Amino acid sequence: MTRPAAVLWDMDGTLVDTEPCWMAAETAIVTEFGGRWTHEDALQMIGLPLMTAARILAEHGVPLPHEEIARRLVDSVVTAVARELVWQPGARELLEQLRDAGVPCALVTMSYRVLAEAVVAQAPDGVFQVMVTGDEVERGKPHPEPYLRAAELLGVRAEDCVAVEDSPPGISSALAAGVHTLGVQHIVPVEQRPGLSRVATLEGVTLADLEGLVRGQVLDRLTGAAPG
Q: Structure pTM?
């Protein structure tokens, strides 16, 4: 077997450039209550489950229940996405290529379903068969549960799939699930790991590249590249 049984996609920072929206939402809620939130603080939040992020924000002086913090973050980002959704370079093209080739795709995100649905509504028609969201799993990334759940819902083996990720927690989740993993560098560095493939952008990435990952090849187009 060379073709991926499915491609399992992270959302924020991988498919769409929503990380600035999350950072703005975090900054707004911390400063509302007189706290200080730095760019370095925001970088540590990338890829984390929302309840973990909410706990960290509470530790920075936000005196609200964790569930309320998470809800306010999601509402802010949903509003931003409705105003303008920026797709990462090459993402839509690869989604369409996979759809046209009959390769199933799942969205595997720690964002809540309301935000995932807002993004999928603006995706090319018919590209996603399954969504696994942060409010529907017991253990979020970096635990393997989200990726194992996506493979289960699609009726395929995780080890026959390819995951596309940008964050350290997401990459850890996919690798722990046994999924062939492609790390796409965006805001935070994608460090070398055994078996991890890396690219600086999805531009130029093709189904043939993903088939190579399933055959056990490791793709590295990132050496020497700077995050951005």
A: 0.85
